[in-house]
Design a protein that fits this description.
With about 325 residues, the chain is of the alpha+beta class. It is about 15% helix and about 45% strand. Strands 2, 3, 4, 5, 6, 8, 9, 10, 11, 12, 13 and 14 form a twelve-stranded antiparallel β-sheet that branches. Strands 1-7 form a two-stranded antiparallel ribbon. The N terminus and C terminus are likely disordered.
Length: about 325
């Protein structure tokens, strides 16, 4: 089919479509171009901004039962059904505690095992494997609330329904070693937060409690292991040189109530939203203005062609 000027309509349409595809091709090549980093990688300063973690009611050995009259007590410790809320010390509105700061190093991956930071510069392509070494020093507040309505199931020395705020605990060092697939369209290659991986903390956080079981020995609440699983990102915003990610999280804390004689254990599983900040060291790659203009021009030509076609019909 030919128009009044003798040109082929299908041929002209092909030119327009080809131009649009070429524009999109330019966009794809920009997003996928290589980025060179040293073998030592990049260091990203990080911070936990917000924790709001809660969990199901958990039995914690905090009741005083020297005669083991409650039936399930261990060496004078009675179990109290309790609710737990964990937040960061820095979140407190009044007299906030220390910030929970961290650091991540993103480096080229040298095979099945990480061989150190030696070697020269490496060009990072879209989809390349990277090594991520990250940690946080976490300062947290934990509030344990008695929700047990059974007789005698009260915190030692406290009224029924009491809440015990335990403030400024830490630093609890949580670390993580993993790999990620480079996404050049995301800040810092899309490696942070490490969705699907876990920060592990082999730490000894000790919180004095007084004499819970009445044997004359001072007791402590001691956390021995924490596993912080990073879930999917639900929100992201960028402010200057920092990106703020909000993601689902699950934190499992293993601990015990301990004195010099005995130490009944407990496990707490908490979940909720977490917000973390990451310094933008490698920005996301975005299409150049010229590429967007080419796409816009292609779409505009299609629009003009449709208008002319409608005029001919009328």
């Amino acid at each position: 089919m030919k128009n009044k000027n003798g040109g082929s309509v299908s041929f002209k349409k092909s030119l327009i479509v080809s131009g649009m595809l070429a524009s999109i091709g330019v966009l794809t090549s920009i997003e996928a171009q290589a980025v060179t980093i040293s073998a030592e990688g990049i260091v990203v300063q990080t911070e936990l901004i917000n924790f709001d973690l809660t969990g199901p009611v958990t039995a914690i050995p905090l009741a005083s039962d020297p005669g083991n009259a409650l039936g399930d007590s261990v060496e004078g410790y009675g179990f109290v059904n309790s609710s737990i809320n964990l937040t960061l010390s820095s979140q407190r509105a009044v007299n906030p505690g220390q910030a929970s700061l961290g650091e991540a190093r993103i480096s080229p991956f040298f095979g099945d095992e990480f061989d150190g930071y030696g070697g020269g510069d490496t060009e990072i392509q879209q989809g390349d494997q990277l090594f991520v070494d990250s940690f946080f020093d976490v300062f947290f507040d934990i509030t344990v609330t008695d929700v047990d309505t059974r007789a005698g199931r009260d915190f030692a020395g406290q009224m029924d329904g009491a809440a015990i705020p335990l403030l400024d605990n830490g630093p609890a060092t949580m670390s993580m070693f993993t790999t990620c697939e480079a996404d050049l369209a995301q800040v810092n290659y899309g490696c942070l937060p490490p969705v699907g991986d876990a920060y592990i903390g082999h730490f000894n956080i000790v919180i004095p409690l007084g004499d819970v079981n009445g044997n004359g020995e001072p007791d402590v609440m001691k956390f021995t292991l924490g596993t912080h699983n990073v879930g999917d990102v639900s929100d992201l915003f960028i402010d200057g040189d920092n990106a703020f990610d909000t993601f689902d999280t699950n934190l499992v804390l293993e601990g015990l109530i301990q004195d010099a004689i005995t130490d009944p254990p407990f496990t707490i599983s908490l979940s909720g939203p977490t917000t973390a900040r990451q310094q933008i060291v490698v920005p996301a790659q975005v299409p150049e203005p010229g590429s967007l203009a080419l796409i816009g021009a292609g779409l505009a030509l299609v629009g003009v062609r449709k208008i002319k076609k409608n005029k001919i019909k009328s």
